[in-house]
Amino acid sequence: MNEAPEIILQIPDINQTYKAVDVQMEKLTAAVEQLEKDIFIEDMGEYKIKRWEQLLGITAFDDDTLSDRRFRIQTKILERLPYSYRVVVRKLNTLALDGMDIEINNKDVLVKLALASKKKIKDVAEMLEVTLPLNMTYEVIIMYHTYGYLSKYTYGELSKFTYGQLRESTEV
Q1: Where are the beta strands (DSSP E) in the chain?
Q2: Which residues lie below 8 Å from residue 160, measured CB to CB, with a gap of 6+?
Q3: Nearest Cα to Cα of residue 79 among 67, 91, 71, 62
Q4: Which residue(s) pair with 108 in the sheet?
Q5: DSSP per position, 140-152
Q6: What span, in angstroms and rounded, lies between the C-alpha atoms of 22 and 116?
Q7: Residues whose CB falls within 8 Å of the CB of residue 16, separated by 6 or more in sequence, listed in order
Q8: Residues whose CB falls within 8 Å of the CB of residue 91, separated by 6 or more in sequence, listed in order
Q9: What is the pLDDT of residues 94-122, one digit of tens each?
């Protein structure tokens, strides 16, 4: 960053001043970059996530990753009214990036989350509880592996796993 002429940089006091300013500029640049990241929930750092959790009354679990905590914050933010069927579907699509299936029949809503979203089932249910009208019922379940998914494997390959592992494991 030293853009001064070489003869000026040879003066020890000025050289030290430039070095001090360079360190401050690096810190300032890093702080500005972090501020820009903290604007969006997807890029938010640890400090801002803690702040949002305090504001929204969210308790983080010990085994939660930053992405799990960001997901809970997004869930709380998306709970705001007003809502419609399209808005509910859009909110669910925003939350369940791993995939999901929604079935809405008159007054019943069935949400099937992808197996990778297993930890998110409680948060999605809480969002539906707040968002849906009181005359509607909902159920949130996990889409387990089905015959169609497992049919591409041979019996020999599948015999290495228990029934529960075949149904629920993401490693199959």
Answers
A1: 100-105, 108-113, 137-142
A2: none
A3: 91
A4: 105, 137
A5: EEE----HHHHTT
A6: 46
A7: none
A8: 78, 83, 127, 131
A9: 877 777 888 888 788 888 887 767 778 88
